[in-house]
Amino acid sequence: MWSQEVGYAKRWKVEGVFSAMKRIFGEGVRATSQKGMFREIRMRVNGYNRMMAMMV
Asked: Which of 23, 27, 18 is nearest to 45 (CA)?
């Protein structure tokens, strides 16, 4: 099936995760440096992954 070959319909899954993370942690970042921003986002992603792992 062409949709599976090209990866169609994967975007909604990613958008759902981004939406959930924004609801939990908020949209903005507080860090001012680029390095700090990356660190903050990485910490949020790790926190979200841990929360999802505990739910399973």
From this structure: 18
- The residue behind tokens 């860090």 is 31
Tokens of 48: 């979200």
Provide the terminal-to-terminal Cα distance of the chain, rounded to the nearest Å. Answer: 31
Note the pTM of the prediction, 2 decimals.
0.78
Question: Is residue 44 a contact partner of residue 52, using CB atoms and an 8 Å limit?
Answer: no
Q: How many domains would you assign to the chain?
A: 1
- Residue-wise pLDDT for 3-12, tens only, equals 777 777 788 8
Domain containing residue 43: 30-56
